[in-house]
Design goal:
By secondary structure, the chain is of the alpha+beta class. It contains 19 helices and 29 strands. Bound molecules: zinc ion (ZN) (2 copies). The site of one zinc ion (ZN) has 7 residues, from loops.
Length: about 650
């Protein structure tokens, strides 16, 4: 099970690095690496067709330069296409010009893409002759294509596509002729294992992109440039927000003081918002015994996403004295040594369920909303780690809401409102909710066997979404095992997709944990649980915000809110500057003073580089008038203001969390 299918809000499905805003619709159905069914293929968008056709042209060009090249898969992907190549020569960007020139020839020749249907035997025969993804017969068989043919279902027709001399095994579809590929460019080359399996040979994955027009291609690269400038990894270093360290370990970010400020401001926001919405805060440890995760169902199914267990010796004896722990199933005897397995927690729910169960509950206690900015640890493969977006330690804006079925609609609605309010605050206006529902035919296998609960909760959820006018799509057959869920996808201003954690309904875990409340009729009942994490994890959300704001945070989020810059260093002037600093700090404003002997222009430049939000520039004249000259990053000089007014404006903007 992959992390993105986790049993809890994870915000882990970082699928697509870049999405052009105009393609938002198309991006909803990203092409996976696996072979698509015929039906899915015919649903390819025009742009995907064009890009997939470009991958054939890419292979044609590579073969003209390196006739020994072998090819595996060449699908369209989110922002272009790739082809996996097996070739002794290491392709580098230095080769792109040469390859692109051959591609241009092929496009200029305007060859039609011809479909040729063949029998399985004919396809195998051509593969043995090295003819698939080839320009002609070769000594070496087309080993990857032969393997792909073996995996084509027996009832599926096999087709080849020809453009010029090039023939490839392919189900299509393509554009009519190579000349229909408007504008293209090769972008990168990476390595990829055949079928994504580390046991298979390593191939070279050559990426490119293609558009209908040159203008669209240019716009795309202009946006990539902007995205590069905003890359959270780059800005994170430049603005001293967070670091990684080899001795600490990959995927384990550490926040520097300037980054920690952002995390704390987000927590403050979450705490205030959740308090007002009737949540209560809890705190739980970072580890737990294996038995907890067996109960929750995370073990064994989720084991590969968890860090391996720690075995603790001699622990059980003391525990066995405690009748509550007697006979725990996670303790074993090795060589007369008793050990117990502990896991780093990968999700907070099991701990929260235990807190729910720790005291008898009645309907009067519900809804019960337990919140925690909980730190979790997930074992992501090192190849999948990516800046703050995919990490191994994550602090989650988590909460679990326990309620009666009657309370479900109102609670679910309130959670959605909270999402929307956050989006407004951060100026996230491109977002989409994916409402994943179950498939009644798969009850008891893919979905917990509770037909009535599924029907009821899905209906209620659908109503909430409809009535609130939220932008959503319904995706059948993609619910979590234990209930319908809503994933929120947002796009930053540069079009980077960001999958905020899910909002999930759960009617399985409360049962696994034997959670109960006494209802009005004095009967014990099982509550419904909602998992939610609107701000996702600190790591991913901060990564997103860095790019969203290009590091120019609004005042309330700014690591350094005000820097005081003096013109000169006369003692009286410095005293005045320090008195302003003290006043600001007394109001909890993150203020600093630049008391270096640099000229004022140097001081301003340094503050601008660090994207300090506001600068109070103070000269002799300002001091005499009890004033400051205000400068705002990105806006320039706003002129002199009375000291009290300038400070009051800062305080108000912070208090109101102005954009
Ligand atoms: Zn094709
Ligand atoms: Zn949860």
């Amino acid at each position: 099970m992959s992390v993105s299918n986790s049993l809890c809000p994870s915000g882990a499905s970082w699928l697509i690095p870049f999405v052009i805003p105009s393609e938002v619709e198309e991006s909803l159905d990203p092409m996976p690496d696996e072979r698509k069914t015929l039906e899915e293929r015919t649903q390819m968008t025009d742009l995907e067709r064009l890009r997939h056709s470009a991958s054939h042209v890419l292979a044609t060009a590579i073969l003209k330069i390196w006739p020994e090249a072998q090819f595996a898969a060449g699908p369209p992907v989110e922002n272009g296409f790739y082809y996996d190549v097996d070739l002794p020569h290491r392709i580098s960007p230095d080769d792109f010009e040469k390859i692109e020139a051959e591609m241009k020839n092929e496009i200029k020749a305007n060859h039609p893409f011809e479909k040729i249907e063949v029998s399985r035997d004919e396809a195998l025969e051509l593969g043995k002759l090295g003819r698939l993804a080839g320009l002609g017969e070769r000594a070496e068989p087309s080993k990857y294509k032969l393997d792909i043919i073996e995996n084509i279902p027996a009832d599926e027709k096999i087709s080849l596509y020809r453009n010029g001399d090039f023939i490839d095994l392919c189900a299509g579809p393509h554009v009519m002729r190579t000349g229909n590929i408007g504008a293209f460019k090769l972008t990168t080359v990476a390595s990829a294992y055949y079928k994504g399996d580390e046991k298979n040979p390593q191939l070279q994955r050559v990426y490119g992109t293609a558009f209908k027009t040159k203008k669209e291609l240019d716009n795309y690269f202009a946006m990539l440039e902007e995205a590069k400038k905003r890359d959270h990894r780059k800005l994170g270093r430049e603005l001293e927000l967070f670091v990684f360290d080899d001795d600490v370990g990959p995927g384990l970010p550490m926040f520097l003081p300037r980054g920690a400020v952002i995390a704390e401001e987000l927590e403050k926001l979450a705490k205030e918002t959740e308090f007002a919405a009737g949540y209560q805060r809890v705190r739980t440890p970072h580890i737990a015994r294996e038995s907890l995760y067996k109960k929750s169902g995370h073990l064994p199914y989720y084991a590969e996403s968890m860090f391996p267990p720690m075995e603790l010796a001699g622990d059980v004896e003391s525990l066995n004295r405690d009748p509550l722990h007697r006979g725990a199933s996670d303790s074993t005897i090795h060589d007369s040594r008793i050990t117990t397995k502990y896991y780093l927690k990968a999700m907070n729910c099991p701990h929260h369920h235990k807190l729910f169960a720790s005291v008898p509950r009645s309907y009067r206690d519900l809804p019960l909303r337990l919140a925690e900015y909980g730190t979790c640890y997930r074992y992501e493969k090192s190849g999948e780690l990516f800046g703050l977006m995919r990490v191994r330690s994550l602090q989650m804006n988590d909460a679990h809401l326990y309620m009666t079925p009657e309370q479900f609609e109102a609670e679910f609605n309130a959670v959605n409102e909270m999402y929307l309010n956050y989006f407004k605050l951060f100026g996230i206006d491109k977002y989409l909710m994916r409402f994943s529902t179950h498939d009644p035919a798969k009850l008891g296998q893919k979905f917990v066997d509770e037909p009535e609960l599924w029907k009821k909760t899905e209906e209620m959820t659908r109503n909430v979404l409809k009535n609130s006018g939220i932008n959503y799509v319904e995706v059948p057959n993609e619910a979590a095992f234990y209930g319908p869920k809503i994933d929120v996808q947002a796009w930053s201003v540069i079009g980077r997709e960001f999958s905020i954690a899910t909002n999930q309904v759960d009617f399985a875990q409360p049962r696994n944990f034997d959670l109960r409340y006494k209802d009005r009729d004095n009967v014990d009942k099982i509550p419904i649980c909602i998992h939610r994490a609107p701000l996702g994890t600190h790591e991913r959300f901060i990564g997103f915000l860095i790019e969203h704001y290009a590091g120019n945070f609004p005042l309330w989020l700014s690591p350094e809110q005000v820097r005081i810059l003096t013109i000169g260093d006369e003692p009286k002037l410095m005293d005045y500057a320090r008195s302003i600093l003290n006043e600001l700090r007394a109001h909890q404003v993150r203020a600093e003073i630049d008391d270096s002997t640099d000229k004022i222009n140097g001081k301003i430049q340094r503050a601008e580089q660090m994207k300090v939000h506001s600068m109070f520039v103070i000269g002799k004249r300002d001091m005499e008038a009890n004033a400051v000259s205000v400068r705002v990053h990105g806006k320039g000089n706003l002129g002199a203001k009375p000291r009290a007014e300038a400070i009051a404006e800062i305080l108000l903007s912070i208090k109101e969390r102005r954009p």
